Structure formats: C-alpha cells, structure tokens
Amino acid sequence: MIRHCVALAILVALATISYAQHPSLPSSFQAKTVHSPEGADIFVRWGGTGAVVVLIHGYAENSDSWSPLASDLMKDHTVVVPDLRGIGRSSKPTGGYDKKTQAKDIRAVVTALGFDKTFVVAHDIGNMVAYAYAAMYPDKVDRLVVMDAPIPGIEPWNTILLNPGVWHFNFHGPDAERLVAGRERIYFDRIWNDFTGDPSKPDEATRNFFTATYAQPGGMRAGFAQFTAFSIDAADNKVFEQVKLKMPVLAVGGEKSFGPLQAVIMRHVAVNVQEAVVPRSGHWLMEESPVYTVNLVRSFLDSPAATIPVRATADHDVGETRLTPGEFKFPQQGNPGTGSSGVGGIETVVLKGDPNESGVYTIMLRVPAHTQIAAHSHRDDRVATVVSGTWHIGYGDKFDESKLKTLTPGSFYTEPPGRNHFAETGDEPVVVQITGSGPSSTEYVDPTQDPRTRRSN
Q1: What is the mean predicted confidence (pLDDT) over 160-179?
Q2: 314: which of 26, 151, 256, 439 is 20 to 30 A away, CA to CA?
Q3: pLDDT band at residue 63 under the 50/70/90 scheme
Q4: Is the dihedral of CA 430, 435, 439, 440 positive or negative?
C-alpha cells in the first residue's frame, strides 16, 4: 500500500513537470510583423472582436506575459499584443529605445492593423511606452491602465533611483553583456526574486521561456538599451507632463511592490486617476495574481464612462475679475509654464482658467529684454495683445529676422493652432496677454532649441 502511494505521488509529480507550460497567447490569434517608420520590425499578435485593447508588456518578459488577460478580454474585445522593439520576436535595432520612439512603433502597429482609437494596458517598462503614447496621441486613447512601474522624470523618480533595489536601471553596456552571456537565467532570477511577493512566481517554465527569448543574439543588448534611454525619457516626460492626460487612468500597484505609489505617480501627469492595489502581490501581477488583476482591468475597461473631476471654486468666486496694470502680480523669477515658449526667464501670470485644462484661459507673459525665441507652435487657437514694450514676431519654420513685424503696445496678433512662429525682444522687456482654449502645449520645430529640454539635461 505504501509503495503504491509513493509510486502514485511520483507519477503525479512527473505529470505536473511534463505539463508545466510557459505563458502563451491564445493559438487563435493572428500574427504578423509590422515595419515601423522609426526603423524597427514589430512582431504583433491579435485576436477577438469588439473594442480594441492594446497590451504593452514589460522587461524580463515579452508579449506572451499577457496570456491571462488576453485570453479573457478576447471574449468581447479585439486584443492587440506587440513585442516591444528589441524583445521577443521583434527586431533588435541599435537605437530607438527611448519610449517616445517606441510609442511611434506602437502607433504604427495600431494603424497597420486598421485600428485607430483604443484602450491601452501596460506593465513595467510598458508603462513608460504607454505614457508616451497617451501623451503623444491623447485623442487615440480611450482609457489607460498602468501597472507597477515608475515613469522616468516624474516624481518621485529621483527618490526611486536612490533605492538599491533598482540596481538594474544602471546595469548595461558591453561589459554587462559579457558578464551575463550564458548566465542570463542568473541575472533574471535576481530581478524576478527581488520583486516578487511569492518566491515560486514566476514559475520555472515561465522563467526558462523568457530567459531563452532574451538569450537570442542581440537580445540582452536590446534589453539593456531600454534602461540606457531613461535620461532621454526623463527629458521627454518633463515636456509631456506640462499637458495632463484627460482620459480615465487606472493606476495599479502590487501590495508588496508599488502599491498606492503608482497612483501618486500618475496624478502628476493625469487629471482622472483611479487607484487600485492588488493584495499580497509583488511586481509580477500576471504571474502572481492573474485572476484578481484580470478582473480589476476588465472592470475598469467595461465600466461606464468616468467623469473628469471638476475643480470647484469658492462660493464667492463667480468669475468676476477686474485688474489694473499695477495689480498684476508677476513672480520674482522665471516660471514660463504651459502656454509660454518655455524660456526660463519668462514670467507668467494666469489671469483666468488654466492652460493645462479644457476651457478658455488667459495668461500674461513678461519676456526679458534681448530674448530670442525659436520657431514653435501651440496646439490651441490663441489671440494676443501687446501690453507694453516692443514685440517682434514672425511666422515660419525657423527664426528669420526678415519676417519679423514690430508690434508696439496695443498691437494684436494671432497664433493659429499648429502654426509655427518665432519672436524676440529688444532693449526692454515686453508684456503680452494671450487668450486660448486649453489644454495648451508648446512644440518646437527643432527639439534641440527647446529650452525646457536643455534645462532638464
């Protein structure tokens, strides 16, 4: 009897080992490779019917990590699951691992499949790509889910970087590649073990599968490149942050990992953030707590449209404002803010509304003497009046002194949406009053001339 029980236990154990499976997307999904204009070939799988959901995976994994969520959502959604450049079956170019470029890869995939507006769900490094995507294509994202990872440049980013647990953020380059060559599993085990709430997750089959995908020629180089680009990402995100996301955002953290911090991060960049924490889970939500996480995401995607919080005003504030020129309270130092050109010396006062929010706003700018502003544009339609000083402004894709027109106090001019313009002051500062319809933004024709980027480097 004892021998029989022992034999049965061995057979059960062997069967369990034999049938251990790595994560895999549904076999019914179609697959193709889409060429991104940004110089990468992106492998993507998709399936199901209904509203489109794009799933963006993270590091130490690939698109197969979405197996539990994809299998559930495909019942009534069209699920699109790409491999990020350099990972899985996508190509491994030498560059383009900044998240802004990878967001363009994702957009190329979405449009190549014939889709346009989608939900976006992301995890880990995927959060960073998804945030860039939502910031660049805000009218193409119905709802956004981000799970358990920071956003470079968005607070408390600098504090997070001081945590020894994120050692892998700075572990990259040729020597790192040589150190892990043939030892990829050891390297990834350290990451999986450090961030899990359950030491058995991810399981052996999953670990072996993901390790094998990164051990392909060029795989570790491309994986490390995701981290090498963080300084570029931080600079880009500082610019994106000036215009808050308007779509509903679900910020999910594992209880034993980011927890409520995920929502704290996203409230810096979005106005409508819902917070969720997955109990007892660490970072690997699809492996550690798939059922809970799937239900959480599905509930958010399927819920009635969430309203954007409206900023309440005090009872006595009914929008009545009267100010004489002497009552404008300019700050004591530059604070260019949204709707300005971003030049550090510009001082900004918001007179009505908020250029970061929907609706009419009016701002007043004081531009220092001898200031030259390169060609740039704003997303909203704006009108302006010169209050004091002599303002020189022109339209075009680069600064051209011959195209400047001199505008004295009382002069009026327009800044049509997307129309590039440039300006300069002479020997005296200039005060300009601008009215537009938010949310506003500022995009330079030549990014190297963007003073906001230079300040963040």
Answers
A1: 96
A2: 439
A3: very high
A4: negative
Within 10 Å of residue 299's Cβ, how many Cβ atoms?
11
Q: 96 and 40 in contact (C-beta within 8 Å)?
A: yes
* Separation between Cα atoms, residue 99 and residue 229, nearest integer Å: 8
Cα separation of 396 and 375, whole Å? Answer: 7
Give the span between the Cα atoms of 196 and 287, in whole angstroms: 9
Residue 106, phi then psi, degrees to nearest 5 = -65, -40
The neighbour count for residue 72, using CB atoms within 10 Å, is 18
The one-character DSSP state at 343 is -
- The pLDDT of residue 334 is above 70: no
**H or E, element range at 67:** helix 67-73
Q: Which residues have a Cβ under 8 Å from the Cβ of 440 and sit 6 or more positions away?
A: 243, 338, 339, 355, 356, 361, 378, 379, 380, 382
Q: Which of 394, 398, 389 is nearest to 368 (CA)?
A: 389
Q: For the chain, state the CA radius of gyration.
A: 26
The DSSP 8-state label assigned to residue 131 in this structure reads: H
pLDDT score at 99:
98
Q: What is residue 311's predicted lDDT score, i.e. its pLDDT?
A: 37
- 3-class state of residue 8 by DSSP: helix
